[in-house]
Amino acid sequence: MFDLRKVRGARVESGYNQEEMAKLMGWSARAPYAKRESGLVDFSVQEFAKFLEITNKQEEVRNFFKFNVH
């Protein structure tokens, strides 16, 4: 499960607003990205890989997931 707060934090830390990130991801509008960041739509593996590349967070991929240990 994604920790969407960390997704948003990585975007903000990288200096992009949602519209800029959407364009970098290849979308012509902000909505597709905003839906993913808010959890309404899941990131595909390819989309998340591109997000990590854009934000230069490839080495920190594990930090973007919540792990439930019972």
Structural features, described:
With 70 residues, the chain is mainly α. Helix content is 53%, strand content 0%. It contains four helices and no strands. α2 (18-25) packs across α3. The mean pLDDT is 94.
Topology:
Elements lengths: L3 H10 L4 H8 L5 H8 L6 H11 L15
Helix pairs in contact: 2-3
Range of strand content: under 5%
- Encode the helix/strand succession as letters: HHHH
- Derived structural class: mainly alpha
> Low-confidence stretches at least 5 residues in length (pLDDT < 50)?
none
Mean of the pLDDT scores?
94
Q: List how many beta strands DSSP finds.
A: 0
Distance between the termini: 15 Å
**Overall 3D form:** globular
Notable traits:
4 helices, 53% helix
Short description:
The chain has 70 residues and is mainly alpha-helical.
